[in-house]
């Protein structure tokens, strides 16, 4: 920089990523501000990295604001951007914020993939909103997004945690009926669930 060589977006992104990886979120934000003041346009990678960092720091409002800024600048968030924010919100138990984001994204015509569905279903189950998770699961078929084994395992675990053996067994039956091969996680969830009820 001192020699007159201006860093480009790749350099700034690498610095931001390094600071986020080291949990130095304030430093990452400082680099982001410097990037903008140097008239170097942030990229989608810049925003994804910062959104991830802010969610890890439980600064969910700022992460949400970055998503809005992306949209204002004409950058189109994709599955990765939305997944990072949804996951951060759900891990931070901000499931209502995650639902608001989800509804906004769906209303704008965005088609979420199975991973995005799984993130929100897991988030809902983790706060005891299993019935809401089931609604989302049933909606997947209308969106031409087939639930996978992770989806079913998550729902089964949610039902077992609530002591709802019948609903958990219905999900198990759906796994088999849909020709999905249960894995070690499926069996562990079932055994643990049956032993705890």
Automatic annotation (TrEMBL):
<protein>
    <submittedName>
        <fullName>Pentatricopeptide repeat-containing protein</fullName>
    </submittedName>
</protein>
<dbReference type="Pfam" id="PF13041">
    <property type="entry name" value="PPR_2"/>
</dbReference>
<keyword id="KW-0677">Repeat</keyword>
<feature type="repeat" description="PPR">
    <location>
        <begin position="148"/>
        <end position="182"/>
    </location>
</feature>
<dbReference type="InterPro" id="IPR011990">
    <property type="entry name" value="TPR-like_helical_dom_sf"/>
</dbReference>
<dbReference type="InterPro" id="IPR002885">
    <property type="entry name" value="PPR_rpt"/>
</dbReference>
<comment type="similarity">
    <text>Belongs to the PPR family. P subfamily.</text>
</comment>
<feature type="repeat" description="PPR">
    <location>
        <begin position="8"/>
        <end position="42"/>
    </location>
</feature>
<feature type="repeat" description="PPR">
    <location>
        <begin position="113"/>
        <end position="147"/>
    </location>
</feature>
<feature type="repeat" description="PPR">
    <location>
        <begin position="78"/>
        <end position="112"/>
    </location>
</feature>
<dbReference type="InterPro" id="IPR050872">
    <property type="entry name" value="PPR_P_subfamily"/>
</dbReference>
<dbReference type="Pfam" id="PF12854">
    <property type="entry name" value="PPR_1"/>
</dbReference>
<feature type="repeat" description="PPR">
    <location>
        <begin position="43"/>
        <end position="77"/>
    </location>
</feature>
């Amino acid at each position: 920089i001192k020699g007159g060589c201006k860093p480009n977006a790749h350099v700034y992104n690498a610095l931001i990523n390094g600071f986020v990886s080291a949990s130095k979120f304030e430093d990452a934000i400082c680099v982001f501000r410097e990037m903008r003041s140097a008239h170097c346009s942030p990229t989608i990678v810049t925003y994804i990295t910062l959104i991830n960092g802010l969610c890890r720091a439980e600064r969910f409002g700022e992460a949400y604001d970055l998503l809005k800024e992306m949209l204002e600048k004409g950058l189109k968030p994709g599955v990765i951007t939305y997944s990072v924010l949804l996951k951060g919100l759900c891990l931070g138990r901000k499931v209502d914020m995650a639902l608001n984001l989800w509804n906004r994204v769906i209303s704008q015509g965005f088609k979420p993939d199975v991973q995005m569905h799984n993130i929100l279903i897991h988030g809902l189950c983790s706060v005891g909103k299993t019935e809401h998770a089931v609604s989302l699961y049933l909606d997947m078929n209308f969106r031409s997004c087939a639930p996978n084994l992770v989806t079913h395992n998550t729902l089964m675990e949610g039902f077992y945690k609530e002591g709802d053996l019948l609903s958990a067994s219905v999900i198990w039956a759906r796994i088999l009926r849909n020709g999905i091969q249960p894995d070690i996680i499926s069996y562990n969830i079932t055994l643990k669930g049956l032993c705890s009820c």
